[in-house]
Design goal:
By secondary structure, the protein is α/β, with parallel strands linked by helices. It has a single domain, classed as NAD(P)-binding Rossmann-like Domain (Rossmann fold), CATH 3.40.50. Helix content is 41%, strand content 16%. Strand 1, helix 1 and strand 2 form a beta-alpha-beta unit. Bound molecules: NADP nicotinamide-adenine-dinucleotide phosphate. The site of NADP nicotinamide-adenine-dinucleotide phosphate has 30 residues, from helix 1 and helix 4. Belongs to the short-chain dehydrogenases/reductases (SDR) family. Keywords: NADP, Oxidoreductase.
Amino acid sequence: MSKDIKVALVTGGNRGIGYELVKQLALKGFKVILASRDPEMGHEAAQKLKESNLDVSFLVMDVDNQESIRQAAITVNEQYERLDVLINNAGVYLDENEKLLTIEPSILEGTMTTNFFGAYHVIRSFIPIMEKHGYGRIINVSSEYGAIGEMSYQGVGAYKLSKLALNGLTQLLAAEINGDIKINAVCPGWVSTNMGGPSAPRTPKQAADSILWLATIGPEGHSGRFFRDGKQIPW
Ligand SMILES: NC(=O)c1ccc[n+]([C@@H]2O[C@H](COP(=O)([O-])OP(=O)(O)OC[C@H]3O[C@@H](n4cnc5c(N)ncnc54)[C@H](OP(=O)(O)O)[C@@H]3O)[C@@H](O)[C@H]2O)c1
């Protein structure tokens, strides 16, 4: 593989914002690994992009399953020997207006497992590949629902807590990571996907555009920040 070709991986790349991120990264010249927990959906999504001559390959990774993440990292290390961009996009939205005190605790646990622990374990497993080259750009797809001010309002508690924790993780890891490896969180806005629903005003393409500038920031770029539409927003 040419040394000049950068490799990017997107979790939950089979649909929604993740699929668009894969497509846009490939259009920018990245070799893109579309990670999906469902082999059939992942294969189909990657195949569709390959048919447009995009350099996309598919990898199974269930971010709820640490062994699946570990195996995926081994495969990327063996096959590509590098990882320049990692986008933690996979996410679930399992609660609406329920109260935290009365929802099934499994809803909170499941949401934390995917949205917070999923990203945490993926970063832990993949960062050694970035560290080999002293370079990496990690983007955590978060939400303004995870901002501290949102905790004053009832509702969507499981999802809000998961993104609050993801934002905290972004800051803590930025302080821990050495070398030219940047980690930032970004809110894509309200986007028309399975999660966002058909009334959402933004397209996945607009969301991807608002995220992808962080994939190519230079060594002077920010780390440990939270952005929306290129502007820093309060945690
Ligand atoms: N849409 C919005 O308005 C909005 C707003 C703010 C933030 N976000 C964030 O943006 C990200 C993408 O959301 P979206 O709107 O594109 O949602 P979506 O259409 O529901 O897609 C979610 C993706 O995450 C994957 N996923 C869920 N659990 C997974 C797991 N355990 N392992 C691997 N993949 C898993 C899904 O895979 P399956 O197909 O297998 O289920 C799917 O590919 C999420 O982190 C979300 O919180 C979205």
